Amino acid sequence: MITTHISTTFKITALFAILLLIGCNKNKTTVETKSETKEVENPLLAEWTGEYGGTPAFDKVNISDVKPALEKAMELNLEEIEAIANSTETPTFANTIVEMEKSGKELNKIFTYYGILSSNMSSPEFREIQKEMAPKLSDFRSKISQNEKLFQRIKTVYDNAIKNPLEDDQQRVVQLTYEQFAMNGAELDVEKKKRYAAINKELSELYTNFSNNILADEEGYVTYLTKEQLGGLSEPLINAYAKAATDRGQEGKYAVTNTRSSMDPFLTYSTERGLREKVWKNYYSRGDNGDEHDNNENIAKILKLRKERVGLLGYDNYADWRLQNRMAKNPENAMKLMNAVWPAAIARVQEEVADMQAIADANGDKITIEPWDYRYYAEKVRKKKYDLNSDEVKQYLQLDKLREAMFFVAGELFNYKFTPIAEGKVPVFHPDVKVWEVNDKTSGEHIGLWYLDPFARTGKRSGAWATTYRSHTTFDGKKTVLGSNNSNFVKPAPGEPVLVSWDDAETFFHEFGHALHFFSSEVRYPTLNGGVRDYTEFQSQLLERWLSTDKVIDKYLVHYKTGEPIPKALVQKIKKAATFNQGFATTEYLASALMDMKFHLADPTNIDVDAFERETLNELKMPKELVMRHRTPHFGHVFSGEGYATAYYGYMWADVLTSDAAEAFAEAPDGFYDKDVADKLVKYLFAPRNAIDPAEAYKKFRGRDAQIEALMRDRGFPVPKS
Fold first, then answer.
1. pTM, two decimal places
2. Burial class for 216, CB neighbours closer than 10 Å (0-12, 13-18, 19+)
3. Cβ-proximal residues to 354 (8 Å cutoff; 6+ apart), any chain
């Protein structure tokens, strides 16, 4: 499943996440009273205490502390950056790069809390702080990225490292650091630097506004049902909708909220076509309702500013600038991959729609398949073609059991053991959040803590993602990992299990793959815990494959009432239907990825965002029976920040690697649990993180480059002739 995997819409680039950190104990905040001025401890800047190397004090978070903590942390950060920049010593790796890597404890802490308040626990009060602080944070980052003395020291170290190479990981840190500064305007003249900084400031405000508009539309549109409107829905789903309504003060009704986890099952099972249309339109019109939360103007401004900014650096378009250090290297290579898959995807959609229309006609439904019908009739096709009922499958997909299955896989591949932490021992930000300790099964070595926040709620952004509160490093004393997975499953009624779809189960495994990538890190330097966007989805996409392995199916897919294992006959139906609906899944994703790239290759002057989206989809011959997975006005991956901008194709790029790597396991003597292949997987593809070039890492694992043929086979598409 395609998701956002970074914790906050404010997320900065990997390098500047490091630069924004400063190691220092000056965590006091000045408070003025009528009689005196005194300094008090700001809990958001305090050292993390307790076991496990210290943990975030989520129980002490107060909104009123956020702004002063940010301001103080920025002040401290700039002090240390200035100290590095103005050193009179000859620039070396130790006194420049290492000192930058060391910096950052206070701001790192505040961003942990900031990310939670933004993504998991947002409120109107916090959103006002976001709006106020976004331009200040942008100014702050510009003071670092445009610090001429600092950059000259970095450049000196970089130039010297070319002549006299350092250790491999040190060389990689220097390269990434230099490239990041150069890509962000460090070599511009004074006037261009001013404009560059001004653009970043304006963009930061637009990103915050874009994100908050989406959240407002997710919170503001709820479809309430009566008992007479529950046709086709399962008992657990009805109970979950009832709880959602009760939580909103609508006792006796049933609420379909405006999130994917609530919308998707309703569109799949509800017999109420008019309500399906309403729920569908609510969801896919987020940010596009012509009101105060409409995002079209924000998008137009973002596109113009991005193009102007990279123009200052001499680039024709944003995509050329962004992809220069990605695996794809340039937009042409990314487009080549997408264009290779697109025709097969939309051709498959035509076949799927024909199958659905035939069933609708046979039933005498007198309808033409529309987007709000796709999931509903696809389910009927699934039953007819494969005798497979998704609702029947859900009875064997319990969230708790899936979590146990993930732990089992982590034990088999990574030798990890997950042990639940007693409630209250580690602070959490919401009662729904549970925590596990991660240890090496053999040595007992403490690896870190895993936090799970599984349920949707007001103030939590939609989707699923993974993040870290603390990453592994060893250069300055070993740091263990604090990793988190976040989902938006519909919270069940008390005593009810959480039953999920096969797609949602894959997503759960996917996000856990990111967590395992965090935990398996063996890097020395913080910068190397970053990643290349069209590579970092690979590890998580690969982990999805273990959901359908026999060991997981036989032990963890049990009926939620009887505890009986899933019948072998049903398993065979699931595997036989593995490529079912791939037209829908591939096309809705790929349309978003193509749109992302085409927006950033186009001239944004006087752009009409809605018209551009519509006209581009027409040119692509987008099937009218479905829409992009993320329509432009709520495409948070691309317009709430820059992490996935012109990089949404990366899921497809990573999926080529995934399919190819999965075949390596399938060909091994012990299949997906082959120890030799698993060891190579961890050694070359998980533990190094960004310490080596991803293309080189993959070749070390596979012995060659990945091949697109494996992807086409996986999706049941025709394999292109070589």
1. 0.86
2. middle
3. none
Reading the block at residue 344, the tokens are: 């097969």
| Calpha distance 220→211 (Å, rounded) | 14
Amino acid (one-letter) located at 145: S
Determine the Cα–Cα distance for residues 96 and 86; give it in Å rounded to an integer: 10
Q: Can you tell me the mean pLDDT for 514-523? A: 97
Q: Are 427 and 409 in contact (CB under 8 A)?
A: no
- Give the model's pLDDT for residue 40: 53
427 Cα distance to chain centroid: 24
Label residue 19 by pLDDT band (50, 70, 90): very low
**Any bridge partners for residue 420, and if so which?**
436
Tokens describing residue 362: 């046979």
Instruction: Please give the average per-residue pLDDT across 381-388, as a whole number.
Output: 94
pLDDT value for 34? 35
Which residue range(s) make up the domain with 267? 221-284
Q: What angle do CA 694, 698, 704 make, to 5 degrees?
A: 130
Over 80: is that where the pLDDT of 8 sits? no
- How crowded is the C-beta side of 410, counted as CA atoms within 13 Å? 29
Beta-strand pair 481-489/446-455: parallel
Share of the chain above pLDDT 70, in %: 94
Partnered with residue 437 across adjacent β-strands are 419, 449
Structure token digits, residue 448 = 């870190």
What's the one-letter identity of residue 175?
A: Q
Instruction: Please state, in angstroms and rounded to a whole number, the distance separating the CA atoms of residues 414 and 678.
Output: 8
Number of helices (H) and strands (E) in the chain: give both, helices first: 28, 9
Residue among 196, 66, 180 nearest 127 (CA):
66
Q: Which residue has the tokens 């340039």?
A: 330
Structure tokens at 504: 């949602």
Cα dihedral 476, 480, 485, 486 in deg (nearest 10): -60
122 and 248, same domain (yes or no): no
Structure tokens at 512: 């856990």
In 474-562, DSSP assigns E strands to 481-489
Mean pLDDT of the 515-541 span: 93
Q: Give the C-alpha separation, 271 to 372, whole Å.
A: 11
In Å, how far are 550, 565, 575 from 568, measured between CA atoms?
10, 9, 11
| 533, 638 contact by CB (below 8 A) | no
The three-class DSSP label of residue 224 is strand
Element (H, E) at 322: helix 318-323
Question: Phi/psi at 171 (nearest 5 deg)?
Answer: -60, -40
Domain match, 31 and 95 both? yes
Q: Is 232 helix (H, G, I), strand (E, B) or coil?
A: coil
What is the structure's pLDDT at 204?
A: 95
Q: At what angle do helices 235-247 and 260-269 cross, to 10 degrees?
A: 140
**Span 157-187, pLDDT tens digits:** 999 999 999 999 999 999 999 999 999 999 9
Give yes or no: residues 164 and 263 share one domain. Answer: no
- In whole angstroms, how large is the CA radius of gyration of the chain? 25
**pLDDT tens across 639-697, in order?**
999 989 999 999 999 999 999 999 999 999 999 999 999 999 999 999 999 999 999 99
SS3 481: strand
Q: Are residues 207 and 235 in the same domain?
A: no
| 209 and 157 inside one domain | yes
Q: Is residue 63 part of a domain?
A: yes
Q: Which candidate, 714, 715, 710, 713, places its Cα nearest to that of 698?
A: 710
Alpha-carbon dihedral angle through residues 423, 428, 433, 435, given to the nearest 10 degrees: -60
Q: CATH number of the domain at 120, please.
A: 1.10.1370.40
Q: Are 43 and 103 in contact (CB under 8 A)?
A: no
Q: Which two tokens stand for residue 260?
A: 């994917």
